[in-house]
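Protein modeling request. Please complete all fields; requests missing the sequence field cannot be processed.
Requester role: graduate student
Desired output: 3D structure, token encoding
Chains: 1
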Amino acid sequence: MNLPRLSVVIPNYNHARFLPNCLEAILRQSVQPFEIIVIDDASTDNSVEVIEAFTKRNPSIRFYRNEQNRGVVSGMNRGLELARGDYVYYAAADDQVLPGFFEKSLRLLNEHPQAALCCTIGDWREIETGFNWHVGVGMADVPGFLSPVQMIKLERRDKLLIASHTAIMRKTAIVQAGRFIPELKWHCDWFAIYVAAFRHGICFVPEPLALFNIHPASFYKARDKQAHREVLQLMLDLLTRAEYQDAATPIRESGALYLFGMPILKLMLRRPAYRGFITPTFLRKNLWHSLKLELKKITPRFAAEWYFRLAGYKARTG
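Delivered output (318 residues):
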């Protein structure tokens, strides 16, 4: 079977110690990507030496280096521009893909070319606390396609969560979603992925096939409250614009914005233009999610692991 061409993009900044595990896991996949694009963002460690050693042994690796540090989002967009594949996967240098990830995802996308992306259950590991949980559990029991209508139903039942580190994305769908908007910073991938997904639907493989390691200094944690509010406000502004209404409607109906907790609820209450996103489903999900975030701060690891398993945040394997 001829599978779609996949471009893997790896933005890197000072992650030389993680790169070998990341690249070796990709090179061990049963189906190899068409190309691996590594973009080093002016690292000051020995990242370049590590990357160049891999490029000498693997002609599929294309290496680009920024002379000045431009940030993660710039690297993501540059990778999207450079990608020659039909689909794009972003591999963080400190994360790892598991066996079968590319093959199972690409076979499903080949069967459902209308889909914006294919995702799997995500394995999340918080390095500082030792917490480990799965996201996307319960979205489906067998691999298949989920339409936007099905996605809304899943979100309302608290079963939808697209783990971005498992998303193999159709390049044209992400470009049409506006690419990765730099001003959205930490949430640029969420916005692009969910806009594309609610426009076209998604494929889903119900297996944990990629690891996401959350470090104390991770890009997704390095934010202050004021900057976060500004990002969320821009997200809401975009979703009120005409060009995003086809995606904004199912996002509102599903309550998907609950994920941004109390800060986004406060913005919605303050501005009349945003209040349409406050639905009973959104409120229920938002308040419960906000409470869980607070409880997580004081919950011992053993109790958290017990809750994750009981609440369906652990996938059955084997």
